[in-house]
Design brief:
Spore Coat Polysaccharide Biosynthesis Protein SpsA, Chain A; single chain; about 250 residues; 9-stranded mixed β-sheet; alpha/beta
């Protein structure tokens, strides 16, 4: 069985998915599998993916259109055979060939940490660098800002599969903020870490569900933050002042 399951879920990302796949197969950590789950793409994604399946570590699943991204993520995670799952959204890519090996070694040596991410280089749709974003590294630093700004880049994360499955995975009742909700549920008992290194290139563009459906996404964020406000000791004044920035930050991720 592979030690790490690398998961890409995609929908109409033929323009970018090849770069994402290449960045996984180029990792110096070789004991991995690649799981690609296609949520009913109508473009030429299958043709782009097909040559990569010659690598015996890669598997491709084509699904009928799913109700939301959480359902696709959960399907992908159920296929995973590794001890760890590393996530990569199909329009992003890893820019450090040692990403997996460094995260694997860290998690093996820190059993109390359930999930490790990194900072990111933000790029535009054409791949041009726009800026660099550094996330808080320590568990305390991450949880201090949890309800004030997004503490993770989803495409940078590696997590322990058993911990995610024990929580039931991503909440399929949520359409936009399933990852944010999962991290908060994990935070009840688990510890986190972010490498200060830039392991990924994260693509910002307007073709994003939470951008196209701003107000619906905002209501989800509002509901989740209200649920956890007392746990993270965010006062009402600060809560009211920061909520809009939180919404903007989340939909830009």
């Amino acid at each position: 069985m592979p030690l790490i399951s690398c998961v890409i879920i995609t929908h109409n990302r033929a323009r970018y998915i090849g770069e994402a796949i290449k960045s996984i197969l180029a990792q110096d950590f070789k004991d991995l599998e690649l799981i690609i789950v296609d949520d009913a793409s109508a473009d030429n994604t299958p043709e782009i993916v097909k040559p990569f399946l010659a690598d015996g570590r890669a598997r491709y699943f084509s699904l009928p259109k799913q109700p939301n991204i959480a359902a696709v993520r959960n399907f992908a995670n159920r296929q995973a055979r590794g001890k760890y799952i590393a996530v990569l959204d199909s329009d992003d890519f890893w820019c450090d060939s040692q990403k997996l090996s460094r995260q694997y070694e860290f998690l093996e040596n820190h059993p109390a940490i359930v999930m490790a991410g990194s900072s990111a280089i933000i790029i535009d749709p054409e791949g041009k660098e726009k800026r660099r974003a550094v996330k808080p590294s320590s568990d305390a630093g991450i949880k201090k800002v949890f309800l004030l700004k997004n503490p993770f880049f989803h495409s940078s994360l590696m997590y322990r599969k058993d911990a995610i499955l024990a929580l039931g995975g991503y909440d399929e009742k949520l359409k936009y903020c399933d990852d944010f909700d999962l991290w908060l549920r994990l935070s009840e008992k688990e510890y986190f870490y972010n490498f200060p290194n830039f392991f990924i290139k994260y693509r910002e563009h307007a073709d994003n569900e939470s951008v196209k459906n701003f107000w619906r996404a905002s209501r989800e964020v509002w509901s989740i933050i209200r649920r956890y406000r007392k746990k993270f000791k965010v006062g009402l004044a600060v809560f009211g002042k920061k909520i809009f920035q939180k919404i903007v930050d989340l939909i830009k991720r």
